[in-house]
Amino acid sequence: MMRRHTQDVGLGSSMACSLLLHAAVFAGLFFFNSFLQVKPSTAPVYYVDILNLPTEHPRAGTPTARGNDAAPPAPAPDREEMSLPQRKAPVVQKKAAPKEPSPENDREFRERLARLERKVEARQTEAAIEALRKKTAEGSGRSGMPGATGTEAGSDYGSYIQSRLKDAFALTIASSSRNPMVVARLTIDRNGRVIGFRIERSSGDKVFEDSVSQAVDRAAAHFPPPPGGREFQQGFIFKPEGVGIK
Amino acid sequence: MGILAVTGLVVKGVLVILCFFSIVSLGIIFYKFRQVYRANSQSEKFLEFFWKVKRFDSINAQLDRFDDSPLAVLFSEGFNELKKLVEKGDEKAEPNVFSTELGGIDNIARALRRATTSQITRLEKYLTFLATTGATAPFIGLFGTVWGIMTAFKGIGETGSASLAVVAPGIAEALIATAVGLVAAIPAVMGYNHFQHKIKVLIAEMDSFSTEYLNIVQRTFTGKQG
User: Fold this and answer.
1) Would the pLDDT of A94 be above 80?
2) What is the ipTM of this complex?
3) Would you call A171 an interface residue with chain B, using a CB distance cutoff of 8 Å?
4) Residue B31 burial (C-beta neighbours within 10 Å; 0-12, 13-18, 19+)
């Protein structure tokens, strides 16, 4: 008497199919990801100060803490403005004029009055132009803002470089210690290329130093030439909280 | 995919375990799909053949055509038992007769029940693994995620910076474990429920076939005796 048994075969081939399917899905994901690699945009951010007059060559950059601490200083009171009360003096005289009955006197008085008014008007216009000129020459008082010339020993340019480094550092920051710190000195030639990068002081965190180095490489691609066609050198302090100027 | 390279050792271990679960459970799903599909289709064919032929010895000679049918196995077991009883009846010089008083029908019923049980066991084999995968894979993934987030927060504490650039990669790495856990669990649960339903239908078919088989045997042989 033969007992009948069903034989189940095919578990091995099913496992092989499953393995192949997983490998295919994994490979598909890998290639899909490599095609859809999104690169972070490193386009510079432009800030426009709508409270100040635009200049011919506005500068890009992030306002620094120094620039944002307070509003621009109020313009000094113009001495020429003080001449305004003089304008009233002739008016007073004008009121008194009808008391003169002579027509010659009256004509002379009118001419004098007109001359005086023109003179005052010319003074006011000149004072306004002078105030504007002075304001334009001084800049808005904020680094990296329109009107900045970058001639003050490279101070505005330094702020600009600091902000670019800060942006790049946010993308590369990494560390293996609690409070890492790196002081690095950058030298930028007249064409805006980094020709010197030296770590002056470090807390010894190699990972943090590498991230600083990467941030400098990343930011260096967008450095403009320093103002005045001169070489620029500045020390920067890199901390997890951000980048500061030494 | 590059994100996998920077995950921690524990998260990597969790991912390996989940991949193993996923591969094995998908293999079992393929295997069970084939097994249950063939059992269903061959059972239908066998029933059709059974009611058409009506002669037990002719059916028994053709059983090789229905290798994967659980009903064919039931028939074979019942027929073997019936044959034994008939041969026993021959020894007593009463061909084709067996006594229900001696428990002949009960013997066949027991043989059919035993065959049914063995077929259920065969059909339900490996389904436990699918159930285990469905129930545990999300938790294993969750464990990997929790561990990854713990590591990420530890890194944040060491760095002293809670900027998005520091926090986001760690959390993204950690969440992969949950995603893979769900990928392993969802097909396993769906497969388990589907096969459970199909096997229930097959069990019902086996029960009704057993009852029918016993009726035929009792009608044929006891009728002769009477």
Assistant:
1) no
2) 0.75
3) yes
4) buried
